[in-house]
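Mods, move this if it's the wrong board.
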Amino acid sequence: MEWKSFAASFIAIFIAELGDKTQVAALLFASKSQKPVSVFFGAGLALLASTAIAVSVGYLAGKAIPAAIISKVAGSVFVVMGVLLFFGKI
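Not the wrong board. Structure tokens:
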């Protein structure tokens, strides 16, 4: 395992996910169901599955497309999403 990539991805994703809608949804499910262990494992499995898809697609895209282009496209998507969220279109 390459620890620098591990640490960088852990820190970036941990900070990005703090207080996002996934945490709010997990909080609500846990409070409604009163089954925190079930919610923890369900939410954890969902995040694991979505991350596996993202990593797989990123790995395959990285073999076919230069990283600089992927970074620019990803940044553009974030900007567009931010503008749409700002104006209440999403």
